[in-house]
Amino acid sequence: MTGIAAVNPIWVLLAPIALGLVALAGAALNGIVVAHAQGRSVQSGMASPILEIARLMRQRRRTTVAADVLLWRIGCAGLVVVALLKTAVIPVGAWVLADIPVGVVWFNALDVMVWAVVWLIGWGANSAHSLAGGYRFLAQAVSYELPLMFALVTPVVAAHSLRVSDVVDAQRELWFVVWMPVAFLVFCMSVVAFSSWGPFATAAGADIAGGILTEVSGVDRLLILAGRYALLTTGAAFAVALFLGGGAGPLLPDWLWTILKTLLLLATFIVVSHRIPIVRPDRLAEVAWVVGLPIVLLQTLFVSVVVAVKG
Amino acid sequence: MLSIIIFSAVAAIALASGVAVFRVDSMARATYALAISFVAVGVMLLMFDLDYIGVITILMMVMEMAIMAIYMIMFMGMNPALMPMSMVHNKRWSAILAVGAFLLLAGCALLIPWPERTGSPAVDLTVSLGEAIMGSKMLVMLTVSPILFATIVAALVLANPRGRYDRWGDALRRSTPDDPQQGGLSR
Amino acid sequence: MARRAVQGSHVLVVEVPGWSETRMRVEAELARSGWVAALSPADADILLVCGAPGQELAAVCEGVWAQLPGPRARATVLTEGGVVSTLEQLATELLDEARQRRDARTRSRQPGEEGSAMQHIQSSAHEAHGTAHEEGHSRGHQPAEPDADADADADADMDMDMDMPMPGGIALASGGSDRDGLEMDVLNVPLGPVLPHWPAGLVVRCVLQGDVIVSAGAEVLPAARQANDGGGMGSSSIRRSTHEQGRRAVVRHSDAAVQVLALAGWSSAAGRAGRIRDNAVSGAALVDLAAALEQLGRRIKRSRLLRWTLKGIVVAPGFDAPHDGGSRADAVSVRDRLIEWLDEAVRIARGAPDAYESPEFAAAQHSNLAALPGLITGTDIASARLIVAGLAIDTAKIAYAPEPLS
């Protein structure tokens, strides 16, 4: 396989740690928002992810009658693995794990893996609510996937390359978010959707007693919850690379800017999600296909025309 | 040498999971065994330096298997409990056809005098592969894709047993359509 | 680490009809101390039963207890005053390593081998139970078919014929025609008495095809006795001041609003409504609450996204127009109910004099319960949950059956 840059050994070790820390920061922010809504102090909110980790590590795993344990456990572990693989193509400053020439498509392929993983979690538990959650995720995914793909194509067209670092370089004069706002918005919504978060969290919704989370406990539950935050983080980091200029910014070094922007975007996702009711997949489908897809296509058309005219 | 070893290993995985599709005890496992087989083929394409095609193959196949799982379980369904089931029908003829196809393709692969390589691989393999396959008919290829999509949509619309009059009333004058499940836009 | 683990415990709250104020007190206490209300037994460390359950409900609680993963603790709380001390005691129990290890040793590794007490109820445990294997057609973008699921009391079926395939001792389901005329599996799923944001003691036994409820039957599992604070049937005999009745009405309306908003997934609005309810329960002045209620009501009326997601979910059917093509303009939707509750609560909080519980209130609950199956038939699970929350059935008025003297 040609085109993979030489991997900096330090970054191989640091990347999962960085992902974990940023995801933990996101979870802490979520805890703060919840604590504020309940009238508790900020400290207790910040500590809540740590408490939850401790609680889940102490809890026993469970199983159900006639569960498909192999597929179930693969699903539970899969979310975190997918998130780690996604960070492989994201450049943080000068470091990148694998700057493959088709980085954008790699990212897209991995978020399709999330479909399989979430469905396996829902299927494996042998429970009606759990399976309903898995199928809801697929129903929602079918709706957002095409707009997501076109939203990913748009910066690629402008940068003439599928390599993520080329896309970051092409934003040196003007960030893509300025002239591709629709694509940016659709991409952010898709990130929230494939993380089963916020308005798109029907797969784990309270009306089906927790959906995919209904029958999982202990380490499995910890992996799924951590996987959700990790996916949200990598999605935010990728949005920064594709639309918000990567590490560009005055004064501070590249990698710090990338991390700061990722944290900002992650915070936006987390805070906004509490203020919006959950979107139901059957309602979303018509809107996504009839309104969402044409708008994104128009955006892509506009960008293509601009690129063709500029030569 | 290393690449031959990796290639053989990946090929063995593809074959083994393909066989597993017919041997496992539940539809979900059969579907995902097939997914593993396809992903292994995608990896093999990556080994040919066909980056884009390899990753796209993996993407498409996993997406298709996720959707296919729904249909396989619907039509042949088994619960997550592993129950012995048989996925083969018409064993004699399918065996004959399979063995025959294998012999034909293997024979072609081994006995055809493939030409020697002249020159070196193009810098952008995807572009050159695309031009070699579709070059003279590029305009047709560009229009085929939206036409396929339109055909699929039209087929679904035609297959729907509920027509306009069921949804909008005999005079087509209801304000919102009468669907068993309301869509998001009430169109 | 165990101390930290217990600091963030998840509590599964089971409310017995008649003890709603106790349950609200528990929720307020959980919010104050940073503990979380669990969504399912797998999520929970603690089982807290608010009230004295009748026989059936007690069997359900046993079933749920069997599903809690260790380390676990359980308690029953009967009065509002006992909530804080019970929670502290539970925390100590969770930290008691020796006791947890003893408990863990008594449990088997295989599901379904414990809990012989739940044999006589099909719907013992919390989640949906039923089995199916699928054959049928799925519409494109709908949340689709649930498949086979777990039943913890499988031992009841063991004496069936051995030639029927029965993985895990549970029979596979048979098919039936669904609303499009396609053959699809039939699942018998009780939406059980222990679900988040669900009326206390209510059991809706649904027949599901895919995600869609084909038929349903509703009943309320009664409590063992009346609650001391007069939540049961004898409440009309206790004279209460108008102010007290107004407070109760505000509490009731804001609690109903919390359930609907939580099911609609709007956590900040649900949290706001929950704070208002907790303040009302703990005796804050109603006029202070009026401003907060009004603000919440304004926010909900303004929200177009909420209007869009709740569109078409009808709680009371309107009159069909005589000619074809009439829309159900008179139907009352869940959103209308929500706004109605908040407006009513504002009115009462501002000191409206007629805030008493009308004598028809109990009868209205019975008729709501009777109308429930008809309303949810043909809808999917998500809409059905919203409809049930929109009806806001006060099960305390329906369920009061004393334990038989033996």
* Average of pLDDT of chain B: 86
Number of domains of chain B: 2
Count all strands of chain B and give the number.
0
Shape category of chain A: globular
Distance between the termini of chain B: 61 Å
Gyration radius of chain B, to the nearest Å? Answer: 23 Å
Shape call of chain B:
extended
The topology string of helices and strands of chain B comes to: HHHHHHH
Structural class of chain B: mainly alpha
The assigned structural class of chain A equals mainly alpha
Task: Identify low-pLDDT runs of chain B.
Answer: none
Number of strands of chain A: 0
Helix share, percent of chain A: over 70%
Most residues in contact, chain pair and counts: A-C, 68 and 76 residues
Number of separate helices of chain A: 11
Strand content of chain B: under 5%
Give the CA-CA distance, first to last residue of chain A: 31 Å
- In which range does the helix fraction of chain B lie? 55-70%
* Integer tally of domains of chain A: 1
Please give the radius of gyration of chain A in angstroms. 19 Å
* Secondary structure tally, helices of chain B: 7
Account of the 3D structure:
The complex is a heterotrimer of chains A (311), B (187) and C (406). By secondary structure, chain A is mostly helical. Helix content of chain A is 71%, strand content 0%. Chain A contains eleven helices and no strands. In chain A, helix 4 (103-124) packs antiparallel against helix 5 (128-159) and helix 8 (181-194) runs antiparallel to helix 9. The longest helix of chain A has 32 residues, at 128-159. Chain A is globular, with a radius of gyration of 19 Å. The mean pLDDT of chain A is 90. Chain B folds into two domains: 1-85; 129-179, no CATH class. Chain B starts with a helix and ends in a 19-residue tail after the last helix. The model of chain B has no long low-confidence stretch (mean pLDDT 86). Chain B has helices at residues 2-23, 27-47, 51-76, 91-111, 125-134, 138-159, 164-168. Chain C has 406 residues and is α/β, with parallel strands linked by helices. Chain C has helices at 2-7, 20-33, 55-67, 83-95, 97-105, 242-263, 267-281, 286-302, 304-309, 334-349, 360-376, 381-391, and strands spanning 10-15, 36-37, 46-50, 73-77, 175-177, 183-185, 187-191, 202-209, 212-220, 314-316, 332-333. Chain C has a four-stranded parallel β-sheet, sandwiched between helices. Chain C is globular and about 60 Å long. Residues 113-163, 230-237, 320-326 and 401-406 of chain C have low confidence and may be disordered. Classes of the chains: A mainly alpha (311), B mainly alpha (187), C alpha/beta (406). Chains in contact: A-B, A-C, B-C. The B-C interface holds B 70-71, 73-83, 156, 161, 168-171, 173-176, 180-182, 184, 186 and C 131-140, 142, 144-145, 147-148, 165, 167-168, 172, 179-180, 185, 212, 308, 311-312, 324-327, 378, 380.
